[in-house]
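Appendix B. One record, verbatim.
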Amino acid sequence: MATGTAFSRAGFEGPVRTAGDDRYGFTAIADGLAHSISALDENISTVIGIEGQWGAGKTSLLNLLIEQLKIHMPENTQVLTFSPWLMSPDESPVAALLLTVAARLAELDTSYKAAAGQVSPLVRNVLNYAQQTSRRIAPLTELAGDFLPGIGLVAKGMKALAETDLSLRIRTTSEIRQEIEQKIAETGTNFIVIIDDLDRLEPAQAVEVLRMVRSVADFSRFRYVMCYDRDVLAHAVQHGLSVRDGQLYLQKIIPLSFSLPRPESFDLRREFISGAIRLYESVNHAEPDETLKNDLYRLMDLYGTSLQTPREVQLALNGLVFRYGGLRDYVYLPDLCFLQLIRTTNPGLYDWAEEYLTERAVVESGDGTVSEEERHDLARTLCDYLSRFRSSQAKSATSLGHWIPGITGNKVDNLTLFGRIPEEEKATMTASRRLGSTAYWRYYFAFSSPQNVLSPAYFDELFRKSGTPEQRPELAHELLKQITSRGVSSQTWFEHIISQMTSPMIVGRTSAQCAGLLEFFCEHGDQVISSYVARNRFFSTWDIDINSVADRLLKRMCEDDHDGARSELSRMLQTGKSWRWIADYFRHLLWMHGLAGDRAVSEDERLFTLDEMEALRTLLATRLNGTDIMSQIQPGYPLQSYIWAWRDICGLETVKSWIGKEMQNDESFLNLLLSLRYNGISSATGYYQALGLSQLREFLGEEQVLLSRLEHIEAKGSYQELTEQVRRLLKRNNF
């Protein structure tokens, strides 16, 4: 299938072999080169150099050139491909090439009728010449035994060649060479020798090949086409021959040279985008949407000019193919493309990005900070890496901020790192699995989630359980367990779960799944709050924004089925065990619908009609005023939050009536005051608890009356411990 094929080719960097695979215009270049080579005087030995940096496509061009030479050259021309790169360093390239020529001549020399086990004088001369010029002392049997390693040519009669003894030098090398020249001319055969990867050889090997083509095997009717990176080969010559200028030496050895043109930037960018889109389609079995395509185009507009060779395109695509299949559910493809692109063309920036995002995750989670010195060092190195881009836009840190959040500015002095990101933007990044998401960023580098966040798969499992009524008890057990689990973060995992329940995460869930989570809060919200209060008496429900999560869940339910959502909410209001959290949340809904406080509300903000809300309020009021709930409000029970919700749901008179009964005896009066304390925070001393009688006037009556009663109880000497607590809270209110 397509995905299997794409994945199996990850890491493949093979050259173009046919014109049909050519995407960079090499076919037209090969055709022009073939015409030029065919027009050269065949009676003169010529060396042609095709120069280009590594990865520019030299081997691709050679493959296409060979095909074109077969079309343009006459039948008496033999095209030999010689690959010294495949030879052992101890093997003589002179011997390997001349053995190849000897094998081909053995097939072509029809003027000699050899008896069984014999070869022609021409072949004998070539082999003898090979032995004498190969700079190694060896009998012909060894030469024949090492025949054509990696060349792929098979010669007839090589057994006879191997048995021939040519170790005696009866004639000089020059005499043998002249005779070979004459005999090759008599056969009417021309040779074009293609030599690739010359720049991969050790310096000694490279020098030996150059000696061969310019001195040893520079026969007439021989033309050599060599491919190499000029700078690399010149450096090898300098080391191999101890010459000062390798470039000048190459000019002497290679009189004709052709520099491979750099592919047009548009072609490289087009190939990268096409490869990325093909990968997306093969993995997802669907076409990418316009947003994804536009981000790919934006990426290429910014950083595409950094691609310089087809190899860089292929390397970046290989990195994508290797990663994307296993990460598709956790990454956004254009962001992964961005990382693989800079990893190939600007690896220092890739490493910087990983370091920055690692530090940013710590800052965002509140687990640590980044010092000014560290920020300055990061800014300085970032400017250095950005300066290596060619495009002015790519050099801008602000442009980089589209892919890596919290970065603005240009120069070190005005560069801002770890900038604050709006909450909505954070939510969008998480929903889109962007590189800037604190939940997903580590997947781009490590095939796994960050250690201080829970994986997306974990949230998928939570929603799966919430959508199945039979599994909701298991869901509750899992969530409650996370209240006491801190992981590696200063937050509990439960707080992290709540923080990740953003609109983008919830928008794709079903009504049943959202109802299941909302039901968890209605059943266990009081238990959650009590657990946090037990660990921190200054805990406030605002420290964990459960109400906002509940809003998003309820909104999603209404979008899917308005009447069904209202029915589900009605059921939870009547049966949910956490009646204190329910009352607090319903007061929040009243405010959201403009039915409490003086906040102006538009129709778009309301989830239900005003009549529907009034019906729900009546239903909940009946429950809260019932004996079952009223009996659970014990002396000392914290009422600061509940009393306001109770008032807005059931009415002020109902609350005042209950309070009047509770204030009939002194002990209940004192416990009531203590239950109405609130939490505060001071820049000087930190958190504190206090009691503000003036804020409670509508429930308790005039402040002076309450203080007079307190003084009366104190005068009697009753409940001294309770009265002292009340006095401390009152004093704290005047801080």
